[in-house]
Amino acid sequence: MQLTSNHNLFKRLYLPSGALLLCHTFYKYYNKVLPLLLLILKSFILFSQPTIVQTYCFGTTADDYFTDAIITNDQNLLALTFYGGSDGDATDFDTLSYPSILMKFDTSLNLIWQVGFGGSDGFTTLEDIIEFNSEYLLAGISTATNGTFSGNNGGQDIVILKVDSNIEPNKYVIQAQSQSSNFDLIGLGLVGETKRWLFELNNYGDIINANVISSLNDLTTQDGEIFINDNHTITIVGCGYASSLLFPSPEGHSGFEGAVGYINDSLELTNMSQFGGTGTDFLSTHTEDENKNNYFIGLSSSLDFDLPDNYNNGSASDYWLMKTDSNLNLVWSMNFGGSTMDGELGGSHFYGGLVKLNSSLFFFGKCPVPDTLPNYDITCGHQLGIPFIWTTDAWIVKFKLESSPIVTNPISNLFSVFPNPTSGQISIRYSGNHFPALLEIYNTIGQKVYSTEIDSMLTELNTSNFKSGPYFFTLIINGEIISSSLVYVNHKNN
Questions:
Q1: Tens of pLDDT along 301-351?
Q2: Highest-scoring range by mean pLDDT, 241-255, 286-300, 333-347, 413-427
Q3: Is 145 buried (19+), middle (13-18) or exposed (0-12) by CB count in 10 A?
Q4: How many helices (H) and strands (E) does the chain have?
Q5: What is the signed CA dihedral for 360, 391, 196, 139, rounded to 10 degrees?
Q6: Could you tell me the CA-to-CA distances from 210 to 189, 235, 266, 333 in Å, in that order?
Q7: Which of 44, 198, 221, 410 could in theory staple to 267 by disulfide, Cβ–Cβ 3.0 to 4.6 A?
Q8: Could you give the count of Cα atoms lying within 13 Å of 129 in the half-sphere of its Cβ?
Q9: DSSP of 211-238, one letter per residue?
Q10: How far is Cα 346 from Cα 64, in angstroms, rounded to an integer?
């Protein structure tokens, strides 16, 4: 099927000085303080970053890239690729112009089979794969009017390809960027401004719900992935603003941030967590492991906060891989890629997919092919042979996940209390999606001095009746301590 419009783009905890007092009173009040101490220690003993063990390139001397990847039911890897030229690895598809290729690999990255989609008079970029019992639903954009797709009404149409007719009825939520106000977007309020377009399809390809999200202050129209969790929560991985009025980043962050947004059944943005630093950062795709830990891939030029390093010293973007727990607390973060002046995307959009299988992560994306190889993590490519003009190859990177413990200091994006220190009114921000949560406040000898339910993202509390001193503000979900912040109340007169 095709959805038609004029233009669519598919798409901290730390140990304070009060820790000495905590240790002094520990044995007497262990039943209250012990969970908090264990939480602090848990935040410092985490897992090391993964290491790159294999890289492979596919493509032509033009721009090529992977757009998505999944694990198949038989524990192999399935990836979508776009070829921008007709030489190199594209010679097997000479009847198609700028095609999308569906490729299957084993876990050693040996190619098992491949098949092409598209037409002879336009380009086709399929960007998403969904698998149902070895049958596939593919979605993307195309300008072709023949071949795999027909009925294009002009420009870039969103195309959805159902490979087999035996898919069980389900709900599909798709996002795109659009400036259109006609055809399928009539009545959504799009006039000139590019917005994020969300629409829900039934099993027959009919639009049954739709909405647009403005990008002025919160979740931007930057490339990103949409997925539905086991609890049916709709989540978007993308880009936000550190200075967002509704969902601000931790103090000190600035500019564009990697963002994880939550969407309700009416396709409205209800909550968002942000990660990054003082450079330009965004997240684009995601996978998770059997314990519901999250792995995100994006791009970053930051050198601080959630980012450890940058091959270009911040002058261009590196690929950014990070892990969080199920509550979006940062576990580790790393950069990888090369050092070309245009960054890892070669001045274009982010395309790619991330999958985890056993103890390995596989990234299917793209890399600029530099004049000289190797270049940091880029060791292969179809070189054009013209100095300082770089094309991109479809790039596979295999990471080995390590299990040796390291010392780190993650910043919690789930729970924050500010201002800190405080002399009166205080704000508690909770960026999770489990409501209601419980807030309990303890003094340093383990006595609970306050307790309340949190049923919204922002809770206000007056501490004027608290005695001056340090307090543990503790977030509890389903009886388990999730996060804790040490807050200093400082009244000058008591």
A1: 888 888 877 777 777 888 999 998 888 888 888 889 888 766 776 666 778
A2: 286-300
A3: middle
A4: 2, 33
A5: -60
A6: 11, 16, 8, 35
A7: 198
A8: 27
A9: EEE--SSSS-SS--EEEE-TT--EEEEE
A10: 11
